[in-house]
Amino acid sequence: MDTPVATSVGFDALGLSPIIVESVLKLGYESPTAIQSQCIPHLLAGRDLLGQAQTGTGKTAAFALPLLHRLDLNLPRPQVLVLTPTRELALQVAEAFQRYANGLGGFHVLPIYGGQGYGHQLTQLKRNPQVIVGTPGRVIDHIRRGTLNLEAIRTLVLDEADEMLNMGFAEDIDWIFDQLPPGLQVALFSATMPPEIRRVAQQRLVDPVEVKITAESETVETIDQQHCIVTRPHKLDALTRIMELEVFDGLLIFVRTKNATLELADLLKAHGFAAEPLNGDMNQELRERTIERLKQGQLDVLVATDVAARGLDVERITHVINYDIPTDPAAYVHRIGRTGRAGRTGRAILLVEPRERNLLRSIERTIRRRIPAMELPSAAALSQSRIDRFIAEVRKTLLEQDLDFFYRLLARINQEQEIEMLDLAAALAYLNQRERPLNIQEDLPPAAFGRRQDASDRQPRQRERGAKRQEERSWSERPRHADRFAHERQPRAERTAESDLVPYRIEVGRQHGVTPREIVGAIANESGLAGRYIGRIEIHEDHALVALPAGMPREILQHLKRVHIRGQALRIRPLHAQPETRFAEDGRNRPRPQENPARPGRDETAERGFKPAWGNPFAPLPGRKFRP
């Protein structure tokens, strides 16, 4: 049954030793959380315990503090074994034990996990640490090698037991139980209580105390949550706007796949953010180094998958952004639990595509509260924020820097060039902000945020189906240069000349469910190319052809190759073939790019740095900066 919530007491009233209480208070903890208040007295008494609590409720301290109290520091053998599902969580728990035991002389804790060399672990095991924290697989390896002595183990802790069972460790856990001495104390912690966890509790725990802390009383209440509806082609713009206006210390961004961590981290670095990926393909040394950089303030943003970030506890993380909404509501609670931990406040923002509204509702049902909607920062707000920072930098420079040389330089320019000081200042301000404009024009349509542009339309589902049928029609049935987006309508004279376009092939087609709108959105968003410069699109079974301006810069072409649509990399490349064989429906013949006879297969116009009459179509959009 659920244990009643304890009244607020201090750590010194729970029966812990004064040395441990002093260490906890030095770490900044003022009073125990609900799960700590309820678990610590029972674990101090040696009772078995079944605890149900979400991540971020302070459960590590709930078992670490009483077990430290019960240690015999004069016995140089492992006395406590903690099993965790991931190496990240093993490291986190081991670090917590070390922090709480700061005043205990002779205490040693050792994390053991796969991915780390045996040599280091064997050396540390010879020091006979009192606490072992490890993943089931590596613990079993050491038991079978005879390098982990279990004779003095008095307490076993299963942390995030449901996750260990989900990862297939059920048989490993049973095997480890069979190797342990009889009569030991067992503490099992789990975010959920599926039948498998109940089975383990019934078979392995003796008369356990059951403690249950609901998510809404802990993790959710300490986190300010909001969601934003945004279409997929505009998610990156939405993310960078949020990151630019939110005041954060450390930021954790969640995506669904390992590849997405690499791609999004690269894009954020191109926008000037100190971001790095964190995924399961990274070796353990690199992951540990990346997390340490975040802790030390050398890195501000991590782009991670669920598995890689499980157990991650970095105090600097003030914000969590779900770039990809999780399909499992429980994963959402785990994700946002990386901030607002142990009573600290945090902020979580969820980006939701229009078609994912049902997932949002499922999450709201799970956490039993609504997640309020937020307005995406407007171009005006972004401009004002940049202007405010610019003014602050100017004032700081005037106060802190020696500007005598520059005063003389400007006076000289003013005299020799007869340029007024205000004109000179305006020109210098313009030059300073060219790569990051202060005056940003709104270039995202209302539809980008899931809002309908036609308020009189009262049948959104029928309109959506109609739009889909329109997209699936053959491109040749549409008018030449048909508008892709309503906000991009241009006078006919300003549209791209067909003769200036060359065909490119991309490796995503009808079998992947791609639409022309998605192709235009991805290319325009990732290259900075305005949609009006994108010509004819033909979608075939396994690929598509798209007409783009000649002279595409190499760095943009290389970047577009890595862009994904519908889970498929574009792998874009020029299509060197007679245009009429690929674009024959309109009956026109477009000129074939001239080849350089000295360098066969090369587009001569591209080598000359071809610039069409309308200017450089690949120039960065306002407010965007492209760095390959």
TrEMBL record:
<dbReference type="GO" id="GO:0003724">
    <property type="term" value="F:RNA helicase activity"/>
</dbReference>
<dbReference type="Pfam" id="PF03880">
    <property type="entry name" value="DbpA"/>
</dbReference>
<feature type="region of interest" description="Disordered">
    <location>
        <begin position="441"/>
        <end position="498"/>
    </location>
</feature>
<keyword id="KW-0694">RNA-binding</keyword>
<dbReference type="Pfam" id="PF00271">
    <property type="entry name" value="Helicase_C"/>
</dbReference>
<dbReference type="GO" id="GO:0000027">
    <property type="term" value="P:ribosomal large subunit assembly"/>
</dbReference>
<dbReference type="GO" id="GO:0005829">
    <property type="term" value="C:cytosol"/>
</dbReference>
<dbReference type="InterPro" id="IPR014014">
    <property type="entry name" value="RNA_helicase_DEAD_Q_motif"/>
</dbReference>
<dbReference type="InterPro" id="IPR005580">
    <property type="entry name" value="DbpA/CsdA_RNA-bd_dom"/>
</dbReference>
<feature type="compositionally biased region" description="Basic and acidic residues">
    <location>
        <begin position="582"/>
        <end position="593"/>
    </location>
</feature>
<feature type="short sequence motif" description="Q motif">
    <location>
        <begin position="9"/>
        <end position="37"/>
    </location>
</feature>
<dbReference type="Pfam" id="PF00270">
    <property type="entry name" value="DEAD"/>
</dbReference>
<dbReference type="GO" id="GO:0033592">
    <property type="term" value="F:RNA strand annealing activity"/>
</dbReference>
<dbReference type="InterPro" id="IPR034415">
    <property type="entry name" value="CsdA_RRM"/>
</dbReference>
<dbReference type="GO" id="GO:0016787">
    <property type="term" value="F:hydrolase activity"/>
</dbReference>
<keyword id="KW-0378">Hydrolase</keyword>
<feature type="domain" description="Helicase ATP-binding">
    <location>
        <begin position="40"/>
        <end position="211"/>
    </location>
</feature>
<keyword id="KW-0547">Nucleotide-binding</keyword>
<feature type="region of interest" description="Disordered">
    <location>
        <begin position="572"/>
        <end position="628"/>
    </location>
</feature>
<keyword id="KW-0963">Cytoplasm</keyword>
<keyword id="KW-0347">Helicase</keyword>
<dbReference type="Pfam" id="PF25399">
    <property type="entry name" value="DeaD_dimer"/>
</dbReference>
<dbReference type="GO" id="GO:0006401">
    <property type="term" value="P:RNA catabolic process"/>
</dbReference>
<feature type="domain" description="Helicase C-terminal">
    <location>
        <begin position="235"/>
        <end position="382"/>
    </location>
</feature>
<dbReference type="GO" id="GO:0005524">
    <property type="term" value="F:ATP binding"/>
</dbReference>
<dbReference type="InterPro" id="IPR028618">
    <property type="entry name" value="DEAD_helicase_DeaD"/>
</dbReference>
<keyword id="KW-0346">Stress response</keyword>
<feature type="domain" description="DEAD-box RNA helicase Q">
    <location>
        <begin position="9"/>
        <end position="37"/>
    </location>
</feature>
<dbReference type="InterPro" id="IPR011545">
    <property type="entry name" value="DEAD/DEAH_box_helicase_dom"/>
</dbReference>
<dbReference type="GO" id="GO:0070417">
    <property type="term" value="P:cellular response to cold"/>
</dbReference>
<keyword id="KW-0067">ATP-binding</keyword>
<dbReference type="InterPro" id="IPR000629">
    <property type="entry name" value="RNA-helicase_DEAD-box_CS"/>
</dbReference>
<dbReference type="InterPro" id="IPR001650">
    <property type="entry name" value="Helicase_C-like"/>
</dbReference>
<feature type="compositionally biased region" description="Basic and acidic residues">
    <location>
        <begin position="600"/>
        <end position="610"/>
    </location>
</feature>
<protein>
    <recommendedName>
        <fullName>ATP-dependent RNA helicase DeaD</fullName>
        <ecNumber>3.6.4.13</ecNumber>
    </recommendedName>
</protein>
<dbReference type="InterPro" id="IPR014001">
    <property type="entry name" value="Helicase_ATP-bd"/>
</dbReference>
<dbReference type="InterPro" id="IPR027417">
    <property type="entry name" value="P-loop_NTPase"/>
</dbReference>
<comment type="similarity">
    <text>Belongs to the DEAD box helicase family. DeaD/CsdA subfamily.</text>
</comment>
<dbReference type="InterPro" id="IPR057325">
    <property type="entry name" value="DeaD_dimer"/>
</dbReference>
<dbReference type="GO" id="GO:0005840">
    <property type="term" value="C:ribosome"/>
</dbReference>
<dbReference type="InterPro" id="IPR050547">
    <property type="entry name" value="DEAD_box_RNA_helicases"/>
</dbReference>
<dbReference type="InterPro" id="IPR044742">
    <property type="entry name" value="DEAD/DEAH_RhlB"/>
</dbReference>
